[in-house]
Amino acid sequence: MDAIRLTDVSRIFRAGMMETAALEEINIKVEEGEFLSVMGPSGCGKSTLLNVMGLLDRPTSGTVEIMGETVKSLSDKALAAFRNEKLGFVFQSFHLINTLNILDNAMLPLLYRRMSESKRRQAAYEVLERMEMTHRLHHYPHQLSGGQCQRVAIARAIVGNPEIILADEPTGNLDSKMGAEVMSILHKLNVEDKRTIVMVTHNELQARETTRTIRMFDGHQVG
Ligand code: ADP
Ligand code: ADP
């Protein structure tokens, strides 16, 4: 089965008379178990592509299928539940909640699930243990280094056991040592846990280590 399938997907942003085609007639299949990297210059549509794949944004036209499900037919509420179950997100700037401690941040995706508080806490503890962050459970994001913040964000991305992880420049705000650490975690999630990963990156070396790279330019896939 394809994990992700985009068919003739376009995303046009309109502001008054201005129209920007962030994506134009994109056709992409991501197979289960792939680690796909997405490259291209700033403004070419990479984030829009990831947002559409992650059901954070609906395309202007075209079809998005995730794990065999055509998502167009889902209501907003069903879409949110589907996204929560199937997809985990990692962002360049971490997107942690500054007023919540590390444990509560990692528990966030489970709030949508029918689970007791103690089960949620246990699940969050376990993913933080994998990320070697249990010594910081009651710290807040501003008390952590960037690398530690990203490890917490990855814990949050995987706590609900999603099949697909979408990462938008996950090492963009990290120095090379911490970036390498985060990449090694993503590779483990791909190889050992069989997660499908799509990652936007500007780093050719990182892209070379993924299973496939697509290149974008001006809303089009060019390679
Ligand atoms: P990248 O991630 O490759 O830098 P983006 O997907 O962020 O590119 O943007 C692609 C194009 O779409 C750019 O021209 C950008 O200005 C435009 N764009 C992105 N988001 C919006 C938005 N919310 N409203 C208007 N234009 C947008
Ligand atoms: P990592 O383990 O991700 O490589 P570092 O070695 O950079 O993290 O950080 C070591 C310690 O210093 C951590 O316990 C972290 O909480 C703390 N630390 C790092 N950067 C900052 C910062 N900007 N503000 C406060 N504490 C920090």
TrEMBL record:
<feature type="domain" description="ABC transporter">
    <location>
        <begin position="4"/>
        <end position="222"/>
    </location>
</feature>
<dbReference type="Pfam" id="PF00005">
    <property type="entry name" value="ABC_tran"/>
</dbReference>
<dbReference type="GO" id="GO:0016887">
    <property type="term" value="F:ATP hydrolysis activity"/>
</dbReference>
<dbReference type="GO" id="GO:0022857">
    <property type="term" value="F:transmembrane transporter activity"/>
</dbReference>
<dbReference type="GO" id="GO:0005524">
    <property type="term" value="F:ATP binding"/>
</dbReference>
<dbReference type="GO" id="GO:0098796">
    <property type="term" value="C:membrane protein complex"/>
</dbReference>
<dbReference type="InterPro" id="IPR017911">
    <property type="entry name" value="MacB-like_ATP-bd"/>
</dbReference>
<dbReference type="InterPro" id="IPR003593">
    <property type="entry name" value="AAA+_ATPase"/>
</dbReference>
<keyword id="KW-0067">ATP-binding</keyword>
<keyword id="KW-1278">Translocase</keyword>
<dbReference type="InterPro" id="IPR027417">
    <property type="entry name" value="P-loop_NTPase"/>
</dbReference>
<dbReference type="InterPro" id="IPR017871">
    <property type="entry name" value="ABC_transporter-like_CS"/>
</dbReference>
<keyword id="KW-0813">Transport</keyword>
<dbReference type="InterPro" id="IPR003439">
    <property type="entry name" value="ABC_transporter-like_ATP-bd"/>
</dbReference>
<protein>
    <submittedName>
        <fullName>Putative ABC transport system ATP-binding protein</fullName>
    </submittedName>
</protein>
<comment type="similarity">
    <text>Belongs to the ABC transporter superfamily. Macrolide exporter (TC 3.A.1.122) family.</text>
</comment>
<keyword id="KW-0547">Nucleotide-binding</keyword>
